[in-house]
Amino acid sequence: MTSPLISVKNLTLRFKTDEGLVTAIDNVSFDIAPGEVLGLVGESGSGKSVTAKALMMLNADNAVYDDKSQITLRVDDKEIDVLSLKRPQEQMVIRGGAVSMIFQEPMASFAPAITIGDQMVEQLMIHSDMTRARAKEISIEMLTRVGIPEPAQRFGQYAFEFSGGMRQRAMIAMALSTKPKLLIADEPTTALDVTIQAQVIDLMKDLVKEFHMSILFITHDLGVIAQTADRVAVMYLGNVVETGTVRQVINSPAHPYTRGLMNSLPKLDDLDSPLSPIPGDIPSPLDRPSGCVFHTRCQESEAIAEKCRTEIPVYTIDSANHQVACHLATQGDQT
Amino acid sequence: MSNVLIAARDLSVHFPLSGGLFGEKPVVRACEGINIEIEKGSFFGLVGESGSGKTTLGRAMLKAAPITHGQVIYTDDDITYDLGTLKGSELKEYRKRAQLIFQDPYAALSPRMTVRDIIAEPLEVMGLTSSREETDAKVREIAAKCRLNLEHLRRFPHAFSGGQRQRISIARALVSDPHFIVADESVAALDVSIQADVLNLLNSIQRESGITFLFISHDLSVIAHTCDFVAVMYLGQIVEAAPTRKLFSDTAHPYTKALLSAIPSLDPDVSGHAQKLEGEIPSPINPPPGCRFNTRCPNAQDRCRKEVPEWREMSSGHHVACHFSEELFG
Q1: Which residues, 6+ apart, have CB-to-CB distance to B289 below 8 Å?
Q2: Contact between chains at B276 and A195 (C-beta distance less than 8 A)
Q3: Which of A93, A97, B250, B292 has the most crowded CB, counting CB atoms within 10 A?
């Protein structure tokens, strides 16, 4: 088996705030293999974006990483301990070098007063020793590759002159121009219309094959995950509650939260099925529930409620590497 | 007797832009030649992408957008209002009967007012109650209906989550006992587990009180689950309208078809490669001639670029605006 491109182990991250330490991510572990698309699903406040930013050390200065946290990136047979990179010079490898990121709102991620082309060229020149002329050539090539018509003219335009879909394509072109090993895509299609979303998803699928890179694909949309990811990690309130292949998680969800998500989705092929919401709201991270973080909203935990309230569930792993953190799953195995 | 509560007849809404010194000023044609009828007690869905004019149409039906051409007729009990010419006391009366629920529950509630004051405001402004006790009783009744905790009425909106805030917005819209509610992307800002809860609440309100809803959304699967009737909008025009199940089983417009196939399937083994649209929605300032969808339509022919397709009835209750519906889907 090939070693993973990036391994996250026991990642725990708290933010120092006026109201005390807020736990944003609690003991999260996952691997991404080369060429693999890992989908990270969860609702707002579940810690998806904070996890992604941790991989690039982009969280604000008030972030405190727990001592046990470990993020290891393997580039050209070298292991890089991401969390030990402190100086900007060292961090270049995780910021646009081997790791790139595309964001949800492309208008906010481009500088409004610098042309798209200049921003692409700047990035290329920082990360390599190529000439300006060569960087421009590569940028236009990338714009062509992502399907932007008349790339040479577009190169000299500003972000506001692009439509939403075109901006996101330009963002992808820019992120991929340095040939990263890992692309972090944080809700890349959420701000787009469905017909444009379908175009961008197709484009991303093609690019994964062509560049043989890995993607950490963050979204709240299970449909988008089903169409893009190889494996899925489901997050709730800073914990990964379930991990498995996309078929395992979507077709036979093992955690009550994942099942709840699936049941609350309106499905087009079954208009008669009622929508069953998950009762209650996501608790405040300032006031994390004890034991299993999901027990305040869980509809299945009554049988062993006491255990759910007091004990943190450990991962159970079945033969096909489908992991779930739930006391009910452990019980199921014993009987 | 016709059972139509509100109808748009050949409705157009144009917004003039400040243009150059000479010549005609450019105009944004947000809605053009819209014909819809919303039946009393129905849950009418309006779906379209951003820029299709669905919000403008919703606002025109509340007389919150200028009606450039055509009519919006509201018929209820013994009264008939022509919204284009409505003013004075009749307009005030219409405001009581027609309400709006907004998209973003974080922006729609004043941070300086308690939940009780937010819900009570329409009652006070419209003079629907005569004493503070009566107002309070009405607020409590509506809050309970929207499953708000009565203890929370003294709090301010910042203390609530998105789902709870949206229930507060719904309570405010319901408090004047309206007969018609426009819900504009009312679940778009919510997480799926909360979205299902709000949709169920809207559905149960509709069943219990018989209020007519115009439900605007970009999400066809949400529309499919809540609405009885769906109209699909593209670039200021309605391209297809039908009872929900009919729209899905007998799709007759290529744009509806494309919208359906663009929704990512939940089954990893089914990839929706059926019919992907190229390009993007053109500008409503200068819409393409003929059928407005011709620049992106996979089946566009010469006739589509010249001739505006007629809004015609395919079968009972199923309208479409496409030259080739029969050939394509028949």
Answers
A1: B305, B306
A2: yes
A3: B292
> How close A206 gets to chain B, by Cα (Å)?
14
Interface test with A, best of B230, B245, B266 (most A CBs within 10 A): B266
| Phi, psi values for residue B34, rounded to 5° | -90, 130
Q: Do A264 and B259 touch (CB under 8 A)?
A: no
Per-residue pLDDT of A185-212, as tens digits, reads 999 988 888 888 888 898 888 888 888 8
Set of chain B residues whose Cβ sits within 8 Å of the Cβ of A263? 196
CB proximity list for B328: less than 8 A, separation 6 or greater: B252, B254, B299, B322
CA–CA distance, B169 with B163 (Å, rounded to integer): 10
- Best mutation target, A268, A284, A287, A294, to test chain B (most B CBs within 10 A): A268
pLDDT at B112 over 80: yes
The answer to whether B183 and B105 are in contact (CB under 8 A) is no
pLDDT tier, A76 (very low <50, low <70, confident <90, very high otherwise): confident
Q: Is residue A66 part of a domain?
A: no
Is the pLDDT reported for residue A72 higher than 90? Answer: yes
- Torsion from C-alpha of A229, A231, A236, A242, nearest 10 degrees: 150
Tell me the chain B residues in contact with residue A220 when contact means C-beta distances shorter than 8 Å: 191-192
**Has the ipTM of the complex gone over 0.90?**
no
Q: Do A226 and B193 touch (CB under 8 A)?
A: no
Angle at A162 between CA B55 and CA A128, to 5 degrees: 140
In chain A, the DSSP E strands lie at 6-17, 20-32, 37-41, 63-65, 70-75, 78-81, 99-102, 182-186, 214-219, 231-236, 239-245, 315-317, 323-325
- B4-234 to CATH, choices 3.40.50.1970, 3.40.50.2020, 3.30.70.260, 3.40.50.300: 3.40.50.300
A193 with B199: Cβ contact below 8 A: no
Q: What is the DSSP letter of A31?
A: E
Query: Does any domain span residue A323?
Result: yes
Q: Which of A104, A193, A232 to mutate to test the interface with B (most CBs of B within 10 A)?
A: A193
In a domain, A245, yes or no: no
Q: How many residues does chain B have?
A: 330
A268 touches chain B (CB under 8 A): yes
* DSSP annotation string for B207-235: HHH--EEEEEES-HHHHHHH-SEEEEEET
Residue A248 falls inside a structural domain: no
Who among B163, B200, B268 is closest to A250 (CB)? B268
pLDDT digits (tens, 9 = 90+) for A118-174: 999 999 999 988 999 999 999 999 999 998 989 999 999 999 999 888 899 999 999
Q: Give the DSSP H or E segment for B89.
A: helix B88-97
Contacts for A132 with CB less than 8 Å, ≥ 6 apart: A121, A125
Contact B269 A223 (CB under 8 A): no
pTM: 0.88
Contacting residues of A for B105, CB less than 8 Å apart: none
The parent domain of residue A312 ranges over: 255-334
In chain B, the residue whose alpha carbon lies closest to the alpha carbon of A229 is: B268
Cα-Cα-Cα-Cα dihedral sign, residues B268, B272, B278, B282: negative
Token digits for B95?
A: 């405001």
Residue of A nearest to B227 (CA): A271
B163: closest chain A residue by CA: A281
